[in-house]
Automatic annotation (TrEMBL):
<feature type="domain" description="Amidohydrolase-related">
    <location>
        <begin position="49"/>
        <end position="376"/>
    </location>
</feature>
<feature type="binding site">
    <location>
        <position position="127"/>
    </location>
    <ligand>
        <name>Zn(2+)</name>
    </ligand>
</feature>
<dbReference type="InterPro" id="IPR032466">
    <property type="entry name" value="Metal_Hydrolase"/>
</dbReference>
<feature type="binding site">
    <location>
        <begin position="306"/>
        <end position="308"/>
    </location>
    <ligand>
        <name>substrate</name>
    </ligand>
</feature>
<feature type="binding site">
    <location>
        <position position="138"/>
    </location>
    <ligand>
        <name>substrate</name>
    </ligand>
</feature>
<feature type="binding site">
    <location>
        <position position="193"/>
    </location>
    <ligand>
        <name>Zn(2+)</name>
    </ligand>
</feature>
<dbReference type="GO" id="GO:0046872">
    <property type="term" value="F:metal ion binding"/>
</dbReference>
<dbReference type="InterPro" id="IPR003764">
    <property type="entry name" value="GlcNAc_6-P_deAcase"/>
</dbReference>
<protein>
    <recommendedName>
        <fullName>N-acetylglucosamine-6-phosphate deacetylase</fullName>
        <ecNumber>3.5.1.25</ecNumber>
    </recommendedName>
</protein>
<dbReference type="InterPro" id="IPR011059">
    <property type="entry name" value="Metal-dep_hydrolase_composite"/>
</dbReference>
<dbReference type="Pfam" id="PF01979">
    <property type="entry name" value="Amidohydro_1"/>
</dbReference>
<dbReference type="GO" id="GO:0006046">
    <property type="term" value="P:N-acetylglucosamine catabolic process"/>
</dbReference>
<keyword id="KW-0378">Hydrolase</keyword>
<comment type="pathway">
    <text>Amino-sugar metabolism; N-acetylneuraminate degradation; D-fructose 6-phosphate from N-acetylneuraminate: step 4/5.</text>
</comment>
<feature type="binding site">
    <location>
        <position position="225"/>
    </location>
    <ligand>
        <name>substrate</name>
    </ligand>
</feature>
<keyword id="KW-0479">Metal-binding</keyword>
<keyword id="KW-0119">Carbohydrate metabolism</keyword>
Amino acid sequence: MKYYVYAKQIVLDDQVIDKAYLTIEDGKFGPILMEEPQDAPIKDYSQSIVAPGLVDTHIHGYKSHDVMDNDFEGIKVISEGLLSCGVTSWLPTTLTSSAELLNDVCETIGNHYQEVTGAKIRGIFLEGPFFTEKYKGAQNPKYMSDPSVDKLAKWHELSHGLVNKIAIAPERKGVKEFIEFAKSKGVYTALAHSDATYEEAAAAVEAGANIFVHIYNGMSGLHHRNPGMVGAALSLDKVFAEMICDGHHVHPAAARVVTRARGPKETVLITDCMRAGGMGEGQSRLGEFEVVVKDGTARLKDTGNLAGSILELKQGVKNVVDWGLVSPAEALRMASLTPAQSVGIESVCGRIAPGYEADFIVVSDQLELEATYLDGELRYQA
């Protein structure tokens, strides 16, 4: 089956092509043509922008399901629901918990991940348990410990190699050896929920860590005499900074500092969305904690701490443009190509290029999502 998508703009890795025809054949992208083709039907998106499907590399749940429920039917619901957010690829993300529950979750997803029919599972992000308590956020300190090579090896094995990202606190013992081991398994190390000094964070990056998780949140702040985790995230070379752009986790002016320091090519838009996403206001849960969802935020009932978000990635993209931080094309890449590159999956998703699976979105000039396509099939229409 072959057809063409005619769009006002097509967003590629390093350019935007105006008024062109994108070939879709047998569920994959083909060449882009400037002249109107005659050999197959044309879908008219002449008022719209066509971009790669979004890639969410840090998301815990959606539509009242959570990765830590260890229920694959719930994972399928999340995967289907994400299509309405413009997301076509994602990393189910765990929380700090017991080694036993993490074993089970890794095994469940590893055994079944190819059964999802919505957004494709491209790995597993283990957010914890190797954190420290001071900036715990909504992570449970009773399960925190120093990094364990044996535990990571087990989770990686149980997931059939699907685990490809793990977050740790760089001030923990044994970090260098752990990061080197992770690297040997193709697992990317991220830094988070940490009171590390700038020097400790820099040492972890030197050892191979390459991502700072939800910048500003859950980490030691920037002080001009002690730059901390935030200073490291803003100033070290060749690292990615994840950012939750819901307008609650990070003030737009602080977000501008990140896009200026790191640039769009090293700023990763994520949601950190939890089960309350897509469900409206009310009571919810994150891991073992009670959560209250109100006024666009999810907060722990007993402390008022932000507990993940209810952000949809399409809204994060729109927000950074509305805040005047980046261009529409840059914002779209910050939620597709850049996240894919941060965990080494850009060979399978995050871009429109010949031979890639035809996972793409259609958005208006104002970046309102109009349609989501998976393998060339229309799967969501606004």
